[in-house]
Amino acid sequence: MGIDIGSTTSKCVILSDGSEIVSASIILGGTGTSGQKTAVNEALANASLSIDAITYTVSTGYGRKSLAFANEDISELSCHTKGVHFLYPDVRTVIDIGGQDAKVMRIGKTGKMTNFVMNDKCAAGTGRFLDVMANILALNITDLESYAAQSKAPVSISNTCTVFAESEVISQLAGNAKLSDVIAGICNSVASRVSSLAKRIGIEEQVFFSGGVALNNGVRLALEKELNTKVLTSPLSQMMGALGAALYAYEKTDKI
Ligand code: ADP
To answer: Which of 30, 117, 233, 251 gives 209 a disulfide partner, CB atoms 3.0 to 4.6 angstroms apart?
Structure first.
């Protein structure tokens, strides 16, 4: 079992035979909440398993030290890299945008992480920025991509600070900017911040977008424009850390 206890969500993956995902869950509620327990219970219930059926558990993510029954905890960087390489062996650059940080990892042919760069100091360029903006616009986070897709002339959000950008968004709307153009500007702002981060270590194809923000196609398309390259994603994007953790757990079961 692999569990990724993030800043906003908890993800759990159960693997059998080191390759078959028998169950997976995503629960809103990350570290310090009951989300991690619910994610485990839901993944077990989906597969009609009890906890006794789990041979080895690896935790990862911001709250990885908080899971008492985990056999081991492994860093998010290692687990994300492992999960992505397992499903997409030709990927050489992973862009991960979660609820509280953004990371870019370079992967060698064998799946080893060769370099990384990270922003965990500032909400701009993370899911938090999008959550704050969705909140002031009274929208669900899932609504942003469809608004962004309607935009013909995205506004430019010039403030990099989330608090100032919030005021900027309000004044854009007060100045009669279209909601879709403002939301496209918000998605572009995240993509621009993370692209600058990625350029610090260089981009090599194929590029894969993981983390919860990868579910927002507006940000993915904006990343493609900024980086001038195709950016792949998958419905399992948010699960890559938990999948990598489960793969590490499986390697350990071989040795038991
Ligand atoms: P963490 O591991 O830090 O908890 P995640 O990788 O789970 O973070 O990503 C959480 C972020 O993903 C949220 O802050 C939110 O902005 C974004 N997100 C989550 N679900 C969706 C969705 N369905 N559509 C768009 N964005 C989403």
So the answer is: 233
Q: If you measure from the C-alpha of residue 241 to the centroid of ligand 1, how many angstroms do you get, rounded to a whole number? A: 13
Both tokens assigned to 239? 């699960």
pLDDT digits (tens, 9 = 90+) for 95-127: 999 999 999 999 999 999 999 999 988 898 999
Give the pLDDT of residue 248: 96
Residue ranges around ligand 1 (CB below 6 Å): 6-9, 30, 61, 98-100, 127-128, 130-131, 141-142, 211-213, 215-216, 238
Strands (E), 34-183: 58-60, 72-73, 93-97, 102-107, 113-119
Closest residue to atom 15 of ligand 1, CA basis = 127
* pTM (2 d.p.): 0.95
CA of 256 to the centre of ligand 1 (A): 35
Per-residue confidence (pLDDT) for residue 159, from 0 to 100: 82
Ligand 1 atom, smallest distance to 216 CA: 25
Count Cα atoms within 13 angstroms, Cβ side, for 224: 11
Distance 138 CA to ligand 1 centre (A): 17
